[in-house]
Amino acid sequence: MPADAHGVHWRAIGLADVAAIADLEGELAAVDHPHYRETHEAIERGLLLSTVDLARDTMLAVDDGGRALAWGHVIRPSGAATTERAILAGGVRPSARRRGLGSALAAWQADRGRQLLAESGSALPGWLVAGAHADHGPAVDLWARHGLAVTRYYLGLDRELADPIPELGVAAPLRLEPYRAELSEAVRAAKNDAFRDHWGMQPTDEERWAGVVEAEVFTPQFSFVVLDERDEVAGFVLTESDPEDWPGIGRSSVYLSLLGVRRAARGQRLAPALLAASLRAAAAAGLEIASLDVDLESPTGAVGLYTRMGFVEAHRSVQLVREL
Q1: What does the pLDDT look like over 112-124, one tens digit per residue?
Q2: Closest alpha carbon to 218 in 247, 271, 254
Q3: Are 260 and 191 a contacting pair, CB within 8 Å?
């Protein structure tokens, strides 16, 4: 645990701290990434994961009045297939920066991440993983001091929903239909298949999947699936929308969180059809902009797809990794 200093006290996080962390994240988002913020629900879900031990895997810095100054947690997701990962996440309130809080927090996270990987007993390669915005040099430099290097770039892309959106369909016997809750498990299986050749991707288990399709911000009305002749999911697009993000964006928006096509179904232009259906539904609902994030080196050529569909780069982020 980092050492207390004048006006700063470190301790593990409890569920009663979620509101204070959400307040911290609100200030952080306004400075670092005004286009999105961590919701109260997402923070709580992350802390409630069965793989998280609040006493050992979380850390909070508070001032003398109990105000959250910095927070972080370390998560080792279950179900690793090719790598065991310790994900290091959190942040420092902008008004509390340049006081060494970020350095102390990152040092603790890196140490705890190494412990978790060692305790896993897995023979798989171990990774420490963190994320940062590409233009946030201090965060990148901070992680570099702990041996994490920029390994992947992700593009944040936006599209004006007022611009023309093509009407695209799928060829029979395939069917393009709205997402419905009873397809959740089938879509999870399709997601795990569609993304298994993507860099760093590991299977998503039921618990983490619930954080996608049961989240308050999930928007099934803008989400679609392609079903084959056996009623199996061949492709999908899932979306979310949070009105509390809109002031930072400046307009109403929908975020395309997942778009994928099963490997066996590729080459049939299912992705453009799914994307067009989602964009048209969001535009019909009066939303103004669609956003997504994509791996710059995606093996499926996703960047080209999105560019052809009218998306343009808005920002970049990086993933940093230390292989142990």
Answers
A1: 999 999 999 899 9
A2: 254
A3: yes
pTM above 0.85, yes or no: yes
Residue given tokens 């996703």 in the structure block: 302
Q: Which residues of 280-293 are buried (b: 16+ CB within 10 A; e: fewer)?
A: bbbbeeebbbbbbb
Read off the tokens for 192.
Answer: 């795990």
Domains of the chain: 9-147 (3.40.630.30), 157-316 (3.40.630.30)
C-alpha to C-alpha distance for 324 and 314, rounded to whole angstroms: 33
